[in-house]
Amino acid sequence: YRPLYHYDALTDTNKSAVIVQSFTAESIVTFNxxxxxxxxxxxxxxxxxxxxxxxxxxIASFADIIACPKTHVAALVNxxxxxxxHSSSLHIAAFGLLDDIDxxxxxxxxxxxxxxxxxxxxxxxxxxxxxxxxxxxxDCNSIAGDKHERIKYGFIGAxxxxxxxxxxxxxxxxxxxxxxxxxxxxxxxxxxxx
Length: 194
Known about the structure:
single chain, five-stranded parallel beta sheet
């Protein structure tokens, strides 16, 4: 088996294009055995897992990366601090992020190696910021400005749609009024014929 790699310009190394993730240790251990450890593995912790140094040490024995819900990042970072004092090969990621771009950037600045987005649009914006290399070169407030631009244009689009619906409503009202007028005219003509 030869995994796919992509070139990482920041570290000047080839990195695997595939990361195997799982909530169960057994599947990662089995996959590591079958692939000879050639792919990075990520263990997903949940809300009810224990975020202790012992748990992190156990996970580090079979996984390269530990990911947790964003609400548990501080606990995982604290638990991992004792473990990573002896080994620097353990990485941390977070999942469950939505549309707060500052939250994404804050986690990455805090040393997390990745974030899993539940909002495709925000995830793409943050990805573009990091891919372009602009993360290190500009103020993060400009990202928020982009978000405000999208909101502004969203409201403009909504206003245009509202105006179009109003015009259509007026047209239908007058068409219906004209139809009623014609029906009443035909009724009067029919009554005169009797």
